[in-house]
Amino acid sequence: MADIGTTSTALAMTLAGLLYPNGLTGSSISGRRTIIRRGWLLPSDQTGACGLSKGVDYVTVMPMGSSYKRIDSALDYPWRTVSISGCTVILAVDDNTLTVSIPDGVTPAGIVGAQILFQDGSDTPNATSVSYAVTADDTAATIAMALAQQVEEAYPRGATVIVPNARQIIARTGGIGTQKRITRRQETLFRVSLWSGSWKGRDALGSALEAAASAEWFIPNTDGTFSQIKFAGAQDIDTQQTSSIYRRDLLWKVTYDTVQTQTAPQMLWGVGNNNVVTHAGLALHSFGSVLPTTGVLTDNFETVYLDAAGNLVLLAQQPYSGLAMDATGNVIEDAGGNLAAFPQ
Fold first, then answer.
1. pLDDT by residue (tens digit) across 23-58?
2. Are 147 and 112 in contact (CB under 8 A)?
3. CA pair distance 122, 37, nearest whole angstrom
4. By three-state DSSP, how is residue 19 classified?
5. Which residue from 239, 268, 298, 242 is spatially nearest to 147, judged by alpha carbons?
6. Which residue, 12, 35, 72, 228, could crosslink 61 as a Cys pair with Cβ 3.0–4.6 Å?
7. Which pLDDT band, with edges at 50, 70 and 90, does 74 fall under?
8. What is the set of domains in the chain, with CATH numbers?
9. What sign has the CA pseudo-torsion 34, 244, 250, 214?
10. Using CA atoms, how far apart are residues 234 and 252, in angstroms rounded to an integer?
11. pTM of this structure
12. Do the Cβ atoms of 247 and 237 come closer than 8 Å?
């Protein structure tokens, strides 16, 4: 969920990417060493090894809590699927048997099921459907056992389910989806402060950062949602000149959503509709008992693909790849924990 903390992190990560487009161990667009932090300047940042007195600039990101404003929004926010983890279990049918298998080295996951059409005279209702939510501790044999126990006339034999009176067995697999819905939309003013040991350094950093950020209208949050940012002004603050500290505040209004999240299994049986974007516009295609439409499907959030088993899979975006944040709030690189231009 995006909140004031995750939004601060997203803004700091965005600024780090803008200032260091080639990575934090490369050169900044201002030509000066700059450390980006979610949080305020510390006393040690003036005279320490990475201090202002050593020619290092800082960018700090802080929300202004008193600026909170709730944004009017639509009356209804539906649940939307934002990612689906595919099923890793394989089901194979041969006459009246169903065989379960799991590829070597793969963690069992997903939903498995079967619909059984019985011969005339069977005591079990025709078109009986069974399903099972797979766990990471399952084996092919335990999954077969779980499916067989749901049908009175079936019995397991190792990783195989045998249904003697079955006329046909239809196997289905599906993934587990993550669904989200917006419950509140709000706007908060964020202060991005630029700190330097000289007015020339501050002006160089401010000019470079404002130019780089001027084209940014939306930033990705760490939960896969997006926030809208609007530039709200700048101000030079020189009250600490006698301490050789020069500061510029850049203000951004950030609009972000409060989101609820839940998990839900994919449909194995039944019929529904997918909204499919085609070259001719939006079309409705059935799914469920009808095979999914072949090709690339899209929704309002992500690109949807078909995996090898025919399951719909949404590719979740991973923002800020290669960046992380240490305990102090400094933006660092994952690989070596490097501060900007300061390999450890």
1. 888 888 888 889 999 888 888 888 777 888 888 899
2. yes
3. 70
4. helix
5. 268
6. 12
7. low
8. 4-73+183-260+319-333 (3.30.2000.30), 87-174 (no CATH), 267-310 (no CATH)
9. negative
10. 9
11. 0.61
12. yes
Distance between CA atoms of 271 and 291, rounded to whole angstroms? 10
Show the DSSP H helices in the chain as ranges: 4-19, 44-47, 140-148, 199-213
Which tokens go with 1?
């969920």
Q: Which residue has the tokens 């009356």?
A: 75
Residue 123, SS3 per DSSP: coil
Residue 40 CA to its chain's centroid (Å) = 28
- The three-class DSSP label of residue 40 is coil
Q: 148 and 91 in contact (C-beta within 8 Å)?
A: no
Question: How would you class 317 by CB atoms within 10 Å of its CB: exposed for 0-12, middle for 13-18, buried for 19 or more?
Answer: middle
**Bridge partners, residue 60, by sequence:** 37, 193
Query: 155-157 and 160-162: which strand pairing?
Result: antiparallel
Whole-number Å distance between alpha carbons of 330 and 6: 14
How far apart, in whole angstroms, are the C-alpha atoms of residue 103 and residue 62?
48
DSSP 8-state assignment for residue 125: P
DSSP code at position 56: -
At 245 the three-state DSSP class reads coil
Report the amino acid identity of residue 69. K
* 59-73, 142-156, 157-171, range with the lowest pLDDT: 59-73
pLDDT digit string, tens, across residues 287-344: 444 434 444 443 333 334 444 444 444 444 457 777 888 878 888 877 667 776 554 4
Q: Give the pairing of strands 80-85 and 166-174.
A: unpaired
- The structure tokens listed for 203 are 């002006």
Q: How many CA atoms lie within 13 A of 229 on its CB side?
A: 26
Type of residue at 228 = Q
